[in-house]
Amino acid sequence: MQTITSRDNPRVKRLVKLRSSARFRRQNGVFTAEGLRVCRDAMLSRAVIETLYVTQTALKKYADKLSALMEYSCETLVLSDAVFSHVCDTKNPQGVLCEIKTLDKTLQSVKIKNGGKFLALDNVQDPNNLGTILRSAEAFGVSGVILSEDCCDIYNPKVVRGSMGAVFRVPFIVCTSIADFLGEYSNLSSYAAVVDKDAEKITDISFGDSCVVVIGNEGNGLKEETVSACQKKITIPMNGNAESLNASAAATVIIWEMLR
Question: What pairs with residue 76 in β-bridges?
């Protein structure tokens, strides 16, 4: 196997750009996943792993688990520890990283029109929040996730890692705006999650078999046009002095109520 020891290697420069640039990921149709578990999740989900990058240390430490991953990947390259630290996104890397083709786990129009329980995200920006939301969506069985195009990139390394593999399995679609999406799929009962004393309590809602709940930006909440496009406004009742929940915490509560 070829060993790369220089930061000036074109492969290394490519990995750095894939880590840092959503535009570069979109242009090339690939993204990266770091860590043994996440890379194995990609393999088990039948994602196309174009290149597996490992260190000599990882090859020795995870020999048994890496063997199947190496056989599955189109190619395997070895990076020196110093170069791997340069391209990775974690402080204490395991020495395992994959370059993966963008996924085809997308929602199809016909599936949405056939109904289901969906979660929509309107300008959610924190990759840690998005990763956790995907993880909850998979855990409770959401039919799919809809993201506005101004959301954090779903292929951001922090999203991929934080989702614990859910990004490979949860169907999703990226749309121009949530308001446009709701206008196109009027078959779904739509609910805007807001902090509003006049909104209906989520615990009082009987969600049907075809519905979508929309969660907004961490700091600014939902856009006015999004709220207007929804049929109802709902809120999570809270005690104490808390004004609102973190976006991922709110999403988990909403998903639970929607699917219970």
Answer: 52
